Amino acid sequence: MAFHPPNPPSYTIETLPDGSTVLKFAHVEMQQARELLSGSPVRVDVRLLVTHRKQTIPLFHFCYPGAKTTILWSHANAMDCGEMYFFFVQFAERLRVNVAAYDYSGYGAATGVPTERDIYADARASYEYLCSCNAGVPDWHLVLYGQSIGSVPTLWLATHYPVKGVILHAPLLSGLRFLIPPADGFCSPGGCCSPVCVYALCDPFPNIKRIKKVTSPVLLMHGTLDKTVDFSHTLKLHARCPAPFKREPYIIKGAGHENVVDSDPEMYFTQVREFVRSVRAAGSYPPLAPTTDSRAVAPASGSHLGAHGGHHGSLVGGHVGGGVGGAMLDYERICTSCSETPQSANPGRAVARTSPAVHSSPAVRSSPARCVHSNDWTLHSNDWTPADTSCVDVLEPPHTPSMARS
User: Fold this and answer.
1) Which residues have CB under 8 Å from 70's CB, separation 6+?
2) Are 228 and 237 in contact (CB under 8 A)?
3) DSSP type of residue 262
């Protein structure tokens, strides 16, 4: 599945001699429109984050005064944050929330080229920055929003980190299912002999598997006449979403892939507003499952952000800050073929060797861990079973993004 970053991008970020940065739109009309928003209560802050894959990505933080909820937005393909800038201002103002939007590697002012592993790293850097002491956003105030291909890093985050809720806007089931039409029979393009089945283990962007692992409320929305991502993708994702976190989907009759909002703006904002209110009023998500393993060690604090003269925060259990009900512990997932004592993925992180029952618990949040057997940095399969010893989603060691402010 190809990425299509806008070329040229809609904006640039210029670094001044004093080290600060300035956002400039490519089109004069957009620059003038930005100046007209000077009276808006929404304040816009742009930061540059360095991901653990060594790419620099911009994070646009639209802050509404007194907002208690932050929406972490992963945008669609063939656009960048500059093109969404004015919509984000409107979104933040109408819903009275903060919006944090980032560009994928290779999009907008971001460096590198887009790959599946890079967009996960981009989302992770944005999440970790927001939950750091620099941004001061508690993870239980975060709602993830993924539009189209943005549903991929959104669901990846939702199955690896604690969040308050998840919104999926015209999401796709997976990479192969996006390319191949729905099955009409065994011999149809989407049937049992199709590439979807034959190459299932190599299917990129596996939202269809990850949706089963979410532990936060999920709102799906889709247009019935979507010619880019078939409407059936949302129906199947909704069917596979765990019942406790499934919400009534917002279905827009007659809408396509790009006009879900424009078809009925008032209804769109009402649906999102009510969802945000409901998850905000629902209380905290459950804390991580406790362990009785005597080898569990207490996490140390004092890991510093690699900021340019920024504030320092403590890294506890792979998350900056504490968490619901105190510090969050990370549980290291180990191959069943490993017989050695688990090694710490990162000094100062809590490590426990867990049982299959804990592995499958939806309350456990996995994090990058060293697999003793393969000696690689891995996250084990979310579909872990006693018979499954495979290691997937290879990542670099945990990393807290460094930042530059504009």
Assistant:
1) 97, 98, 99, 100, 130, 137, 141, 142, 143
2) no
3) H
Rounded-to-integer distance, Cα 4 and Cα 397, Å:
29
Cα–Cα separations (whole angstroms), residue 32 to 24, 27, 46, 210: 11, 9, 18, 42
Q: How many CB atoms lie within 10 A of CB 235?
A: 16
Which residues are known catalytic residues?
A: 148, 226, 257
Residues 61 and 73: beta-carbon distance below 8 Å = no
Comparing CA positions, the residue from 135, 106, 120, 105 lying closest to residue 311 is 135
- The identity of residue 129, as a single letter, is Y
Q: Over the stretch 96-147, which tens digit does the pLDDT of each residue have?
A: 999 999 999 999 999 999 999 999 999 999 999 999 866 778 888 999 999 9
Q: Please provide the DSSP assignment of 57-70 as one string.
A: EEEEEEE-TT---E
Interacting residues of 289 by C-beta distance below 8 A, sequence separation 6+: 331, 358, 361, 363, 364
Is 195 exposed, middle or buried, given 0-12, 13-18 or 19+ CB atoms closer than 10 A? middle
Residue ranges and CATH numbers for the domains of the chain are 11-281 (3.40.50.1820), 286-406 (no CATH)
303-325 CB burial, b ≥16 within 10 A, e <16: bebebeebeebbbbbbbbbebee
Digit-coded pLDDT (tens) for 39-87: 899 999 999 999 999 999 999 999 999 999 999 999 999 999 999 999 9
The pTM of the whole model exceeds 0.85: no
